[in-house]
């Protein structure tokens, strides 16, 4: 294990440009102007994505952001509220001058891509990121952008059905177009999820001020949706350069994305909720976590989970189906480290079957009641209680502690 985590190298090669970290502050209110982008860079962002630039500046509804819980929110914020010229003349050059790697987000139509991408490149953007309302708009926007710029192009793909039916297939088409034109094309997936509805119980009606009251959800809650899509994109072609967006709230979340093969990770909502300074903590936490896990650079862990997932993945979802399932002798073997247990009792309280008891320092599980669901070890905040799937118990601690409790 690398004891000095400061020596852990978290820089990444992102389409030929070196990023100081894999964290990319994705398009949103934090990158509304140069000031926000510069702050992100100073807090350790590898790159920053401008608020989406469109021909007409946005007039945002009042209100347009509501916090759901400690890591998720809903919003109906539109695109950039300043005109393209402001981005070309002030925001992009100023952010570049301060050392930011700048990704210019351009949306949402072919006409706008045609008008905006070349001046964004001329203003100093390192990448163009295309964002569109529908899957079918993305490909012509990409072709038009390839014809107008030399810098790499990122296609930001959404998972919002029915406008986006198959982001994985769309990723494949984007990469193919890039290859056909010998132009570097990269992928970002996904965007916020919706439309969704959040109701104000104090003033019955929608929480947010969009025309129909609907909004878009982002933050921790959407990470597993995005993880599945990013995994499928990277399993399809491990050479794709991409960054995974959706619900990155801490270092471990970033590792999840990197381990399914993305090169970078987007981060937005958690920084709105906790402030940009929090990014600096996550950057340090990533180094510590990598050191703890024995990694000294990102390349060593990138894609590390793909084989483990694909070896057990059926082509179709099998949730709810069990025609082919057989009774298994697999079970969870628990390890309890009393020295790092903070006696929070979360592991006990979460068990739906009342199978677990903790009379510190004795942790017990009643094997007649335990269904091997895994909730108790997954909720433990310190990893004092961990579990692994086994056919036969081998852990002598467990054998000693739990004598009389095995079924
Ligand atoms: C308030 C707000 C405004 C956003 N505005 C944009 C935008 O202008 N363009 C864009 O491509 N994505 C926009 N997004 C989406 C984010 O870039 C990101 O894809 C999404 O929030 C998921 O990441 P997260 O879970 O880390 O927040 C916005 C998100 C939020 C919360
Ligand atoms: S694995 Fe599930 S059933 Fe077993 S003790 Fe833990 S929470 Fe309870
Ligand atoms: S959840 Fe973890 S830290 Fe909390 S009591 Fe259980 S073992 Fe200890």
Q: Give the end-to-end Cα distance, rounded to a whole number of Å.
A: 38 Å
Annotated CATH topology of the largest domain = TIM Barrel
- Kindly state the mean pLDDT as a whole number? 93
**Helix run count:** 14
CATH superfamily of the largest domain: Aldolase class I
Largest sheet: 8 strands, parallel, barrel
Uncertain runs are 403-407
Instruction: Return the domain count.
Output: 2
CATH class of the largest domain: Alpha Beta
Shape estimate: globular
Can you name the CATH architecture of the largest domain? Alpha-Beta Barrel
| Spatial strand arrangement across the major sheet | 3-4-7-8-9-10-13-14
Q: What is the multimeric organization of the chains shown?
A: single chain
Give a short overview.
The protein has 407 residues and is α/β, with parallel strands linked by helices.
Please, could you describe this protein's structure?
- The protein has 407 residues and is an alpha/beta fold.
- The chain has 2 domains: 5-310, Alpha-Beta Barrel (TIM Barrel); 331-401, Alpha-Beta Plaits (2-Layer Sandwich).
- It is built from 14 helices and 18 strands.
- The protein has helices at residues 34-42, 84-97, 110-122, 135-146, 167-180, 223-236, 251-259, 269-274, 277-293, 298-301, 306-310, 346-349, 375-379, 396-401, and strands spanning 12-14, 17-19, 23-25, 47-49, 65-67, 72-75, 102-108, 127-132, 153-157, 185-189, 193-196, 215-219, 242-244, 264-267, 331-336, 356-359, 362-365, 385-390.
- The strands form 5 sheets. The chain has an 8-stranded parallel β-barrel, surrounded by 7 helices.
- Residues 403-407 have low confidence and may be disordered.
- Bound molecules: flavin mononucleotide (FMN) and iron/sulfur cluster (2 copies).
- Residues 341-347, 358, 379-380, 382, 384-385 line the site of one iron/sulfur cluster (SF4).
């Amino acid at each position: 294990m690398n004891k000095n985590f400061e020596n852990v190298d978290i820089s990444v090669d992102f389409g030929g440009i070196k990023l100081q970290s894999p964290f990319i502050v994705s398009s949103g209110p934090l990158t509304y102007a140069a000031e926000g982008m510069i702050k992100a860079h100073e807090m350790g962002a590898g790159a920053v994505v401008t608020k989406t630039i469109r021909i007409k500046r946005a007039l945002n509804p009042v209100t347009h952001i509501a916090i759901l819980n400690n890591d998720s929110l809903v919003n109906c914020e539109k695109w950039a509220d300043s005109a393209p010229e402001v981005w070309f003349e002030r925001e992009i050059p100023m952010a570049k001058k301060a050392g930011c790697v700048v990704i210019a987000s351009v949306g949402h139509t072919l006409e706008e891509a045609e008008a905006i991408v070349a001046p964004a490149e001329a203003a100093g953007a390192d990448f163009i990121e295309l964002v569109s309302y529908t899957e079918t708009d993305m490909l012509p926007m990409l072709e038009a952008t390839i014809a107008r710029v030399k810098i790499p192009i990122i296609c930001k793909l959404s998972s919002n059905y029915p406008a986006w039916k198959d982001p994985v297939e769309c990723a494949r088409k984007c990469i193919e177009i890039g290859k056909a034109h010998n132009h570097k094309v990269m992928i970002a997936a996904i965007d916020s999820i919706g439309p969704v509805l959040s109701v104000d119980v104090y003033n019955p009606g929608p929480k947010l001020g969009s025309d129909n009251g609907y909004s878009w959800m982002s933050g921790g809650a959407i990470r597993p949706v995005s993880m599945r899509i990013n995994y499928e994109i990277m399993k399809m072609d491990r050479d794709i350069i991409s960054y995974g967006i959706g619900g990155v709230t801490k270092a471990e979340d970033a590792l999840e994305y990197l381990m399914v093969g993305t090169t970078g990770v987007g981060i937005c909502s958690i920084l709105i909720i906790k402030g940009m300074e929090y990014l600096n903590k996550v950057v340090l936490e990533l180094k510590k976590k990598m050191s703890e896990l024995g990694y000294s650079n990102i390349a060593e862990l990138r894609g590390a989970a793909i084989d483990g997932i694909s070896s057990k993945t059926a082509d179709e979802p099998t949730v709810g189906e069990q025609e082919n399932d057989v009774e298994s002798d697999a079970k969870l073997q628990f390890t309890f480290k009393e020295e790092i247990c903070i006696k929070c009792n979360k592991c006990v309280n979460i068990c739906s079957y009342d199978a677990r008891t903790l009379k510190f320092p004795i942790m017990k599980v009643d094997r007649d009641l335990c269904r091997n669901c895994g909730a108790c070890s997954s909720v433990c905040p310190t990893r004092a209680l961990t579990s692994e799937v086994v056919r036969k118990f081998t852990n002598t601690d467990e054998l000693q502690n739990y004598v009389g409790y095995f079924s």
